[in-house]
Specification:
four-stranded parallel beta sheet; globular; binds 4-nitrophenyl phosphate; alpha/beta; Rossmann fold
Length: 160
Amino acid sequence: MTAPVRVLMVCLGNICRSPTAHIVFAQRLAEAGLQARVLVDSAGTGDWHIGHPPDARSRAAAAQRGYDMTDLRARQVQARDFHDFDLLLAMDENNLRDLQRLAPPEHRHKLRLFMDFAELDERSVPDPYYGEAEDFQRVLDLVETAADGLLRHLRQQLRE
Ligand code: 4NP
């Protein structure tokens, strides 16, 4: 069996968007029976929330759709992540720019916007931190669409 594909979801705080992407994509992988072939984790470019559980508003919005985020804890992107992961997926353009700045040149090809995998016009998952409940629902809508597209992409890659 070939080594698993490793995917890191990245946002700013690792308490709203990237843990949402992490849990949604993990569930998609489990449903597809691919949880041993594709591994997912998440991290933030910032250090403010290291060790914290996901934001209560993200947890509540996720729970409404059947996702359980209670076991996740925030961590910061580390230098070794660029080596350890095959794909580092930024939630917005600021996160992508921060990753591009941190990444060794030989690993920059692994950096993408998560929304590249959604067949939508949106390029980013907007930061909901200073927003309302509906902004957290919007995060889930975008994340679910991109997770479906990412699953299709990786299934194709695993077949090749
Ligand atoms: P996230 O949201 O990047 O989706 O986890 C944020 C969480 C915290 C902050 C900003 C965005 N903050 O400024 O503390």
